[in-house]
UniProtKB/TrEMBL annotation:
<dbReference type="InterPro" id="IPR039941">
    <property type="entry name" value="TT30"/>
</dbReference>
<dbReference type="InterPro" id="IPR013105">
    <property type="entry name" value="TPR_2"/>
</dbReference>
<dbReference type="Pfam" id="PF07719">
    <property type="entry name" value="TPR_2"/>
</dbReference>
<feature type="repeat" description="TPR">
    <location>
        <begin position="42"/>
        <end position="75"/>
    </location>
</feature>
<dbReference type="InterPro" id="IPR019734">
    <property type="entry name" value="TPR_rpt"/>
</dbReference>
<keyword id="KW-0677">Repeat</keyword>
<keyword id="KW-0969">Cilium</keyword>
<dbReference type="GO" id="GO:0005879">
    <property type="term" value="C:axonemal microtubule"/>
</dbReference>
<comment type="similarity">
    <text>Belongs to the TTC30/dfy-1/fleer family.</text>
</comment>
<keyword id="KW-0966">Cell projection</keyword>
<keyword id="KW-0802">TPR repeat</keyword>
<keyword id="KW-0970">Cilium biogenesis/degradation</keyword>
<dbReference type="GO" id="GO:0030992">
    <property type="term" value="C:intraciliary transport particle B"/>
</dbReference>
<dbReference type="GO" id="GO:0120170">
    <property type="term" value="F:intraciliary transport particle B binding"/>
</dbReference>
<dbReference type="InterPro" id="IPR011990">
    <property type="entry name" value="TPR-like_helical_dom_sf"/>
</dbReference>
<protein>
    <recommendedName>
        <fullName>Tetratricopeptide repeat protein 30</fullName>
    </recommendedName>
</protein>
<dbReference type="GO" id="GO:0042073">
    <property type="term" value="P:intraciliary transport"/>
</dbReference>
Length: 483
């Protein structure tokens, strides 16, 4: 951002020295003091807006530029910066309105990009695409933005191709590498994703040793590096969060924890929503109270990671806080269709219903279970057909869909079993499990719960031992392989 020179005075040299050293916080203090005496100082307001932007305090930056727009309506830069800050502050309608007021030809492309970004953030992908298509085709940002739209449309393979084109044309860019890692993650191609993640982290460590990557994990007591524009440009925070997500998916929980502590250190109040969300999840077993507080806080913020709503509800149910889950569901009805799949909403609603009307809940669960078993049978048939046709790609896709459907089916099954378990009707629980043996006989959660219900019937100790023994042997092997 371009800014006019501040008026000559006793602080001038010091201010520019602090900006050069990126001590934006100290500059903000000095300028706010100066503005008490000269509230309409163009130079002070301009530099203050710049510093707030660098500190990622976009609301405060927008306030500065709004004053400058009013004081100097002929300076088009201020109008654009004002629009940009409103967008960064997630004030999308206001940002759109402000950008529409900037009609100067010189800013046409910039405004188109900004308006496309706003529509993208609002999930208005058709209009975002229309705006991007109006941008110059030879601008690398155009290709990058089209790739982002493809990603949000869940056309991940096509997005990978476009991001690779950007990488070939522009050379290394941290944001492009991170986006490629994210696409491969969505495609469950974790090795490819980790390759790009490693590149971003290695570049970040080499180019910015001052960001203290990995120092927290090594136990070194270091101060926060803050939320600087340098940190944002490295994509290190996003990349470490993605690494944590991959390790978590692979059930490497210690490695997932390390990924979160390896990222550049910041104070808790400086953490971005995604990092705060992931820290809450990773530490739920050790400190659920703190985890719930973080997730409740995040749910009130804009922006909020879309996973927060579902995870908070599921964790309340896991910890038997059904009344709290019901309250959150009722208070955030606007998030229901945006953040919950039909399956997840039905499951959560049924678990809440189960507390007051178990029989009604069982019937609802039975409808869910029937739908899922039909899907599992269809997918089994599709896998067999694709194998006959030697279509390995289709086989892989169907197997992944089968695994996902199975992971949805098991909680429904366990919820049905829980209703009769609470009544100590263990023979009925066993019947429920036997009906599901077609799909679940290799699933560890299913085997463990079958063992429990056989054990509780006393006369079936031998059968229970067989299930327990298989689980113990498997986990003993896992422990040996990791040692």
């Amino acid at each position: 951002m371009a800014h006019l020179r501040i008026q000559e005075g006793q602080y001038t040299q010091r201010i520019y020295g602090l900006i050069k050293e990126q001590n934006y916080g100290e500059v903000v203090q000095i300028l706010n003091y100066e503005l008490q005496s000269h509230p309409k100082s163009r130079a002070a307001l301009s530099l203050l807006g710049f510093c707030y932007y660098r500190l990622q305090d976009f609301q405060a930056a927008a306030d500065c530029y709004e004053q400058l727009v009013q004081l100097h309506p002929d300076v088009h830069d201020y109008q654009f910066y004002y629009s940009q800050c409103l967008y960064k502050a997630c004030m999308f309608p206001e940002a759109t309105k402000a950008s529409c007021q900037l009609e100067h030809e010189e800013y046409q492309t910039k405004v188109l990009k900004l308006q496309a970004a706003i529509k993208y953030a609002e999930d208005d992908l058709p209009n975002a695409k229309t705006l991007v298509e109006q941008c110059p085709s030879d601008d690398p940002d155009t290709e990058f933005n089209m790739a982002c739209i493809l990603f949000k449309e869940k056309r991940f393979t096509e997005a990978v191709a476009k991001f690779n084109t950007v990488l070939q044309v522009m050379g290394y860019r941290a944001d492009t590498c991170y986006c490629l890692a994210l696409c491969h993650y969505q495609l469950k191609q974790y090795a490819a994703s980790l390759k790009y993640i490693s590149e971003v982290i290695e570049r970040g460590i080499r180019d910015h040793p001052e960001l203290s990557v990995g120092m927290q994990t090594e136990g070194v007591d270091i101060r926060s590096v803050g939320n600087s524009s340098v940190l944002h440009g490295t994509q290190l925070v996003e990349t470490f969060n993605l690494r944590a997500a991959i390790e978590y998916q692979l059930k490497n929980f210690d490695a997932a924890q390390d990924a979160l502590t390896d990222m550049p250190p910041r104070a808790e109040e400086e953490l971005d929503p995604v990092t705060l969300h992931n820290i809450a999840l990773m530490n739920m077993d050790q400190n659920p109270t703190n985890g719930f507080e973080k997730l409740q806080f995040l749910l009130q913020q804009v922006p909020c990671p879309p996973e927060t709503f579902a995870n908070l509800l599921l964790l309340y149910i896991k910890h038997d806080y059904y009344d709290l889950a019901a309250d959150v569901l009722a208070e955030n009805s606007h998030l229901t269709f945006k953040c919950l799949s039909t399956y997840l909403y039905d499951f959560i609603d049924t678990k809440i219903t189960q507390q007051t009307s178990p029989d009604e809940a069982f019937q609802k669960l039975d409808v869910l279970a029937t739908h899922l078993t039909e899907r599992l049978r269809k997918l089994t048939k599709h896998v067999q057909e694709h194998r006959k046709n030697h279509d390995e790609e289709a086989v892989k896709r169907c197997v992944e869909e089968y695994d996902e459907a199975l992971e949805n089916y098991v909680p429904v099954l366990m919820a049905q079993a829980r209703i009769y378990w609470d009544r100590e009707d263990y023979s009925q629980v066993e019947k429920i499990f036997r009906k599901s043996v077609e799909f679940c006989n290799e699933h560890d959660v299913w085997k463990l719960n079958v063992a429990h219900v056989l054990f509780m019937q006393e006369v079936k100790f031998k059968e229970a031992i067989g299930f327990y023994e298989a689980i113990v042997k498997k986990n003993h092997t896992n422990v040996l392989s990791k040692s």
